[in-house]
Amino acid sequence: MARNLQLNEKGELQHLLTIEGLPREIIVRILDTAASFVGVTEREVKKVPLLRGKSVFNLFFEASTRTRTTFEIAAKRLSADVINLNISTSSQSKGETLLDTIDNLAAMHADMFVVRHAASGAAHLIARHVAPHHHVINAGDGRHAHPTQGLLDAYTIRHYKQDFTRLSVAVVGDILHSRVARSLIHALTTLGTPDVRAIGPQTLLPTGVESLGVRVFHDMREGLRDVDVIVMLRLQNERMKGPLLPSAQEFFKCYGLTAEKLAVAKPDAIVMHPGPMNRGVEIDSMVADGRQAVILPQVTFGIAVRMAVMSLLGGGAA
Amino acid sequence: MKIHVRGGRLVDPQHRIDGVRDLFVAEGRVAGAGVAPAGFRADHVIDATGLVVAPGLVDLAARLREPGLEYKATLDSELYAAVAGGVTSLACPPDTDPPLDEPGLVEMLKRRALSRNLAHVHPVGALTAKLEGARLAEMATLRDAGCVAFSQADAPIADTAVLWRALQYAATLGLPVWLRPQDPMLARDGVAHDGEVATRLGLPGIPAFAETIAVGTILELVRATGTRVHLCRLSTAAAAAMVRAAKADGLPVTCDVGAHHVHLSEVDLAAYDSHCNLVPPLRSLRDRDALRAGLADGTIDAICSDHTPVDEDAKQMPFGESAPGATGLELLLPLTLKWAAEHKLALADALARVTCEPARILGIEAGHLGAGAPADVCIFDPGAYVKVTPAMLKSQGKNTPFLGYELPGRVRCTLVAGTVRYEAGA
Asked: B257, B259, B254, B256: which is closest to B85 by C-alpha?
């Protein structure tokens, strides 16, 4: 367990489970590879044969539309066979254990597992269990990590801002429950971003969040001052009213991104959101649809980034 | 049966003995030490040259899983694991299935344990019916059936008024109450210490103050009721400090710590090692160090194994979904010796935490080797290191964060009531 589970003996990517501990060179290689695939997705024939004959199993133990779809598109553009399994409605409800499910699918000669699970650490458990020729991509585990989202966010930031070492980036909202925030923070700190800020009420910030390398702000206007990038996080419906927050309206009042709050950021600041958005809760429609928003390009880049990860894992020289 | 244990280093913390002395056993009891009693003719001689001869260990928390949870472990497997670990007396918490809240269950457990002729079993009765934290259990009846104390195991009493009344009632009968302090609401959904590691791993946290708030409540109720309370398995530096102050105030409280918490911290969760999913959670290094210091200065009276055998399938799960607990009966002595070596403690002082001190808390005649005491003896090689593997563990539970560790102390022979019940290699 001392060894980094994600890397093989040669230091190459074996699984993608989390961005934490991933060497900077590997992150840059993924982003560079993704850049070469952005062109593919814009071509007439949107396919390359890098994963021809390989089977990618999308295992979603938790509902998802966007992430599952972009993984599916990415795999198909690499010419892989894609099998989608929505497990929350099948064998797990019949009492099969997670690892039994994996063993059964491995016996069907899966090459790659793309896994989303509600429990933090589920992808680690699977990666420790499978034979060395299987690859595991974490598509989101509990509150822990969503590394391809972190990478596509990093890709988007690099696309618009080039150099990470001069940037101020603010992550706003429900960081406590957010695997997206954790993965992005690790990506940014690994890539040398000097100023990463976490903005939110104490109830939505995890204990000791500063240890991840962020500065904490409770006042959004103060936190957004002169930033280059603003990443808004989704607030889950069930958390809008209760012991964490009094109401969606009050959250929007304090932490919703409006044109007026956006104005304290740098004039060329970009606005990102991992989706799906709650308009009028964490972000005002004027901003979401405004000229500084890069929310839809994030989705497009997400396909290229997922192609890059899969091609690097699948052994295709990219 | 008369046994002569020859040439060993006799360590008896209660009587401040540490030196090479022979031990003489007759009719299940200690007949003397040093020189043989007049007319002593041994039927059996045990050569303990180079070995330590100590009182059998007394463990304040070992789950035997009977009745009801035999798929995890059985009396046969766990009581054999006990003597293989040098443990000759153990208290078992009431969280069996059904819980130990009826005299018939307690009597059956005692009878079945006795018939195994291995370690002595002292059931801890349920404080409330079904451990539900609402209705008092029949404590007087359970006492008569053999319960030595009353506890909720890890089940909460959410209603402080019920806890108050339970303590009053126990005090009326002069019975001790054992409580693991944890605010159930603050701990709800949590699976790890609320700190940097849980934040990094995205695991829902249990804050340290979930423990100290409960300790504060319990200490106030002890002040009000005068009940003898034993706090089980402290995990935080702050709780240890509160107990230190309470003892200085003269409150009738004692406490213990689980052997795992003497050595491990949140850092050992690494990449979701579910063997480190323990109750209470492994906390910060600062907490661990404070627990070690509290043990050394006597604030913490005892180390328990918190033996919790879990089947392997229940550990092969994502961390937060895995069953908490670790096997411990066979590691109690090695982990105590490891702590003693690291803290540069005298062997007798360290062994006191697993012999005479827990025996005092249990209120049983055990944990020392004075003349006339039950001849419960653990003979071990303090210099031998043992690698922890599933195969070497006699317990049905192979779940331990110490798999692969080399730990000091190999038990060579265990006597229970003057009879050899375990011999290494046998």
From this structure: B259
